[in-house]
Structure formats: C-alpha cells, structure tokens
Amino acid sequence: MQSAEKLSITLPPEMAHFIRQKVASGLYGSNSEIIREALRGLMERERCLERLDGAIALGLADAEAGRVQEMAQEHGFFSGDPCARWLTEISSDRKMRLVEEFTFTDPDGLTWVAPSGYEVDGASIPKALWSLVGSPYTGDYRRASIVHDKACNDAAGDVTARKAADRMFYHACRAGGCSSEEANNLYLGVRIGALGDVVPLWSLGIEESFAPRPRTSLPPSERRIEADFRVASDLILRQGATDDPFVLEQRVDSAIEAVGGQ
To answer: pTM here?
Structure first.
C-alpha cells in the first residue's frame, strides 16, 4: 500500500466552499479525494506539455536538418494531439475531459474550439453504428469526434448550425487521415444521429444503445438503425464517393429520406 504524507494547505473561501459542496453531493468521499484528483489532472497536463515540448523540439530539429516536406491542408488542420483524462463515473465510463484546449481550423479558416475542461462523450454517432464505423475513440476520426461533440452541443436546436458542424466533421475526418469513402460513411452516421428524433425507431434505438448494461444481442430498434445505415450507405456510395461536403449533404438527405420513411 502506498504511503501517504499529510500536508496543511490554505484555500480561499470560494475554493473551500466548492470542495465542501462536492463532498456533500456524494461524488467524493473526502476533501483529500478532491485535492488528489485535481493534482492528478495537473500532473497529466504537465506530462502533456512535456510531450508537446518534445514534439516541438523534434520538429524544429527536423526543419533545421531539412527533413520536412510541404503537406496539403485542403481539408483544414488540428492544433495538434488532444490531451485528456478518462473519467470514472457511476454510469457507463465513456467520457473524457480535455486538460487543454484542442482546435480544428476548417478550409474556410474558421477555428472550432473544444476548450480545456470540456467533457467528450462520443455520442454524435449512434452507438448502434459503432460496430460498422468504429467507436469515436479509435481510428482516424478520433480527433474529429472531439471538436464535433462540442460543435453539436453548441448547435443544440439549431438545424443550420448542426449541418455546419456535420460538414466540419467531414473535413476534420479527412484532415485526420480518413479516405473520402470512410468520411462519407462517417458523415452519414452523424446525420442519422442528428435526425434521430425524426424517425421514432431511430430515436428509440439511439436511446437504448447508450444504456450502461452488457448485452448478448441488439434489440430491434438498433438493428433497424444498422439496416437503414447499410441501405443509405449503398445509395450514397453507388454514386461514387464525393469529397465535397455540400454535395454529400444533398446525397445523404435524399438517402435518409428514402430509408427513414419506410
């Protein structure tokens, strides 16, 4: 068992009040538990900064030695690699908290920001589709899912803003290394997530898929989402993968209308 050392600390009233509130809520068992978590976050941030400093130093050394090449950024670019901590929760443990700001700048020069402290849950693609397209925390669209999560939260209730967020997601997927065909399917996934309320079976399937329980089979509502995704994907890719998110938006809207009304 790791030994512990007692320290005496002085906090301003607002911080002491915050700690008492968290302990009273039942989320933490003691004042010390809160302090330990805060320090773990600070230590992780320091490690992230050390890795960033090392990467910068390596990049500068490569540049001085001429070991660089110009890369196309037609789909935009990320601020770097995200630094985050996994969160342990009473329900399903699928959230992570950013310990520093993470951004994506799209081809129009607009910067989409996920601030330090933002909690990502990867819910913009229905979980029922993760077996087909992959979970938000794996693969080349991992970084895209972070900024898209924040953009979706900001666009809540605004159809135009949500469509803009989904087009940004397409560019971010491509900037992250996804092929145009992969990005086409990922875009379809987030559009199904956005339109879940339009199709009752989709809404039920999305809700059931995130229930924190082990299962041996998928319920009919989730199988319906999978089946509709497969049909819509076939309708879209039959026309050939496009690298224009506005063209893709029209194709996806038509495909969703075709399968969602059945």
So the answer is: 0.69
